[in-house]
UniProtKB/TrEMBL annotation:
Residues 1-36 are annotated as: Disordered. NCBIfam families: sufD. InterPro entries: Fe-S_cluster_assembly_SufBD, SUF_FeS_clus_asmbl_SufBD_core, SUF_FeS_clus_asmbl_SufBD_sf, SUF_FeS_clus_asmbl_SufD. Belongs to the iron-sulfur cluster assembly SufBD family. This is Fe-S cluster assembly protein SufD. The gene is sufD. Residues 142-364 form the SUF system FeS cluster assembly SufBD core domain.
């Protein structure tokens, strides 16, 4: 059985008898802004987010004229351009997205243009498509819509690179054709004052392969949703995340793998490190296995490394299973300080304490960084991790305080 994007959208907009997601983590969707109340912070999907620091993006802040520059390279055979009018309106919802938040509904309804990245069928793009977004004025509240369309059996890598100072709400939609092989990397390397609220929604075609990497270092507040549905059997999604929070930063990542077709796969791996007073990270993972999704495989994992006192890491994995006919499903979550045994082993062999700490952190992130699969980005991430470590002198490590659960 094949579930098309249109049928998924229809199911999500209708009642329970048509497959509506009955989940406190994913309220019913609607394109009508009036159907969405302004969040108060008491809702399950908002309870970790400090709403006052969003500067109204979650509510009714004016979407002003953009102060964020956007530039890109254009490899041969690829169309990349800003579009407006009927063409832009026709791209709203190409991923099957039906907004379940007020801010996302506002972006689709109010933003007049879209950035279109269009890779035709059977096209293999030889170099990464890199879109640089550089914020220039944090006092400007703005919004954007990005639509990525990958034809059947195409192959491409897209990198969204966020830098500078900005207050922005963004919806990114990714439509992946049958048999395509697509990687999307979103790097949030903002200045310390930036606010970034984003929703990434992907639909994965029959036998298609999708990799999404969410990498967050900078910003005062970054919250990103990375969701995926399936348009046919055999689709596979790998959801990766890496984040490093410093004093006062709030970094929040949420994923939703909605298995809407049989014999599909999803694997999520997110790793984060925290250092400095009131550094706060949130990871909420959810996998929904619908009745139609027989023979699926899924696993979600989140690991956090606490480097100093005064940090908080919230980690909440979830599985919602509506059929017993699955190949495998599981999740794992753990938060810990440095492993004293690792540090002792290194120091007993003449490695200094600071160098031992650095090596342990690099080892913690290394396997995930290698999974990104883009050499230039992998090198950049290693350098950035090094720079983050240099911001604080790690003291009072204490003993290993690991706590978590595996199932």
């Amino acid at each position: 059985m094949t579930v098309t994007t249109d049928s998924v959208r229809s199911a999500l907009e209708q009642g329970p008898e048509h497959g509506k997601v009955e989940s406190h983590l994913h309220p019913a969707g609607s394109f009508d802004v009036a159907d969405h109340e302004v969040p108060t912070g008491r809702e399950e999907i908002w309870r970790f987010t400090p709403l006052k620091r969003l500067k109204g993006l979650h509510a009714d802040a004016e979407f002003m004229r953009s102060a964020t520059s956007c530039t890109w390279n254009t490899p041969e055979g690829v169309r990349i351009e800003g579009v407006s009018g009927d063409e832009a309106r026709g791209l709203r919802g190409i991923s099957g997205l039906v907004p379940n938040t007020r801010w996302a509904a506002r972006v689709l309804a109010e933003v007049p243009s879209s950035l279109l990245i269009d890779v035709p069928a059977d096209t293999e793009v030889s170099e990464p498509i890199v879109v640089d977004l550089d914020g220039e004025d944090v006092t400007v509240t703005e919004a954007g819509h990005v639509a990525m369309r990958f034809g059947a059996h195409s192959k491409a890598i897209v990198v969204l690179n966020h830098t500078g100072s900005s207050t922005i709400a963004a919806v990114v939609e990714i439509a992946i054709g049958d048999g395509a092989d697509v990687t999307v990397v979103s790097i949030q390397d903002w200045a310390d004052d930036a606010v970034h609220l984003s929703h990434h929604q992907a639909s994965v075609g029959r036998d298609a392969t999708y990799k999404h990497a969410a990498i967050s270092f900078g910003g005062d507040l970054v919250r990103m949703d990375a969701n995926v549905t399936y348009d046919g059997p055999g689709g596979s999604a790998e959801l990766l995340g890496l984040y490093f929070a410093d004093a006062g930063q709030h970094i929040e990542h949420r994923i939703f793998a909605d298995h809407t077709a049989p014999r599909t796969k999803s694997h999520a791996l997110y790793k984060g490190a925290l250092q400095g007073e009131k550094a706060h990270t949130v990871w909420v993972g959810n996998v929904l296995i619908r009745k139609v999704a027989e023979g699926i495989e899924t696993y979600e994992e989140n690991r956090n490394l606490v480097l100093t006192d005064g940090c908080q890491a919230d980690s909440i994995p979830n599985l919602e299973i509506e059929t017993g006919e699955i190949e495998g499903a599981g999740h794992a979550s753990a938060t810990a300080r440095f492993d004293d045994n690792q540090l002792f082993y290194l120091q007993s062999r003449g490695v200094s304490e600071a160098e031992a700490q650095r090596l342990v952190v690099h080892g913690f992130f290394n396997d995930l960084i290698r999974k990104v699969g883009v050499p230039s980005i992998e090198d950049r991430l290693l350098t950035t991790v090094e720079a983050e470590l240099a911001k604080n002198v790690l003291k009072d490590l204490g003993s290993l305080a690991a706590f978590g659960s595996d199932s």
